[in-house]
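Appendix C. Worked example: Fatty acid hydroxylase
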Amino acid sequence: MIGKLVAFWHGCPAGLKEAYASFAVQSLIALAYSLNRYIGHAASRPGIRRFVPWAVLNLTATFVVHLACLRALSPDYRRSISVTGFPTARGFVLEVLGSLLVFEVLFYYIHRLMHTRLFYRPVHAMHHRMTDKVCLGAFYVHPVEFLMVGFGAFMGAVALTRTHFPTMLFLGVVAELAGLYFHELGEVSGVMSHESHHLRGAKNFGSIGLMDVLHGTFMKTYKMIQFRKVYVSKNLSRLGLHVCDLHQRPESTVNITAYNSTHLLVYASSQDPGT
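Step 2, the predicted output written as structure tokens:
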């Protein structure tokens, strides 16, 4: 069996190797990460079950579009978007840094586009309406947006920087793990907070904060925490809750409902374009 798989892999053209490997790595990471959280954290289970279909849909759509792009590039799939072979150690570092910077630019402007009237309500709003803080929430995205951001920005960065295939896989692993982590466990001290974008739609559009600093849309983590305490406390009285409920992971169905309802109040009042 293993021998057949090895023979199949060696016989695949470069384009198909890129598509198959990308799909397999993305799927396995999402499966392993969500299973770990599902088994070890009971409060995450309802949200994970709810978002599994969206993960399957968006990963499959990305795979199909990836194949279509490769077919357009080369009908026999002999060409790939990434560069075949292995980079040098220096080349690997330069590719990682270069891809990160290019991705930041593409991600920022595509994300800003998602907040225009053309895209916000029909496409991007569904992600902002999400109230479950679970890992697979990263996949609760309209397929159009997932393809533009998750595939377009990422593969655009790979193509523009002439990134090698192994580097592309490494960057894909890092990007997916970051998305899964930040959509459930919030921010890391000293790193740009994605949660602040969900609390204030006009802040933190980028992935690492560079473009936000240049455009004046950067919001520091400590300011996000202050904003959350002040802004959310105005809505908590409707639910009979206290602001400390937002800093605790809910451990029961009742707490989950209250936690999500509180976030729903915040999202509903802060995510229209131009806020």
